[in-house]
Amino acid sequence: xxxxxxxxxxxxxxxxxxxxxxxxxxxxxxxxxxxxxxxxxxxxxxxxxxxxxxxxxxxxxxxxxxxxxxxxxxxxxxxxxxxxxxxxxxxxxxxxxxxxxxxxxxxxxxxxxxxxxxxxxxxxxxxxxxxxxxxxxxxxxxxxxxxxxxxxxxxxxxxxxxxxxxxxxxxxxxxxxxxxxxxxxxxxxxxxxxxxxxxxxxxxxxxxxxxxxxxxxxxxxxxxxxxxxxxxxxxxxxxxxxxxxxxxxxxxxxxxxxxxxxxxxxxxxxxxxxxxxxxxxxxxxxxxxxxxxxxxxxxxxxxxxxxxxxxxxxxxxxxxxxxxxxxxxxxxxxx
Length: 335
Ligand code: SF4
Known about the structure:
Layout: H1 6-16, H2 30-33, E1 53-56, H3 80-94, E2 103-106, H4 116-124, E3 135-140, H5 147-150, E4 160-166, H6 172-179, H7 185-200, E5 206-213, H8 221-230, E6 236-241, H9 250-256, H10 266-272, E7 283-285, H11 297-332
Parallel strand pairs: 1-2, 2-3, 3-4, 4-5, 5-6, 6-7
Helix pairs in contact: 9-11
Bound molecules: iron/sulfur cluster.
The site of iron/sulfur cluster (SF4) has 10 residues, from loops.
């Protein structure tokens, strides 16, 4: 488990979070977004010989290209053989630790079922602790969560198993666009029914369906949330706001965040958020009702791409006399 005392945590936040979390990003921290940060402070007296929790998020592989992804831009560009050698090295180092682990989780930095090295460790995990004391937590985009892939790590079903599946939309066009995939959304829907069947058998103990709410899908959210709860039997629906990162294109980044009062869809967004489904106890809101601090478009573009904006403005300015004379000439010859 992450070993940090309240005292150390205080020192840490003094230097990094401003001492009162005022310099932390609420959008990046569900504990701040839900006002539960203080309940996550941990105090321990002695550093144990082995950790009892292991988070596996090191394998940089994904079968999607989500438009809002914060992981992919940081992926290594080393040749695959070198990356694989690194994964093998991690595996060898962690092998003696694995039996001492009581809580294991994966992924969050790529797609779990497309990550063979992480799957191998999960499949080989045989904790020394009694089954009732062990738990596993999986995060996936759901596209490969079918019977065949589940069979590779079905050993996890004996422990307390939590599954989080992120889906951008149940509408095929929106799903493909935001996930950067050609897979039909029906494949994810079928897989969600499969996971629901695992839950009904008591194999999956908690199912969370998550999404990133943004300009392209916000108006679908009431229907999306209802389907998660009623059709797929989700225990919780995590609605996370879009965070500014991932895309290279500043104008696109600005337009994706409609919590911004300057956004042309902001009023529409506020109306959608009035839907009573968002008050459902299974809905976990990670900050959809907080306004973003994104400035107006021009200021935003100037902050991020000053050179590009100035270059564009100069180019337009240079064209202006030509356009004006063209208009004048059109008027003179009656066109
Ligand atoms: S599924 Fe996750 S890791 Fe993969 S591209 Fe999308 S956001 Fe990134």
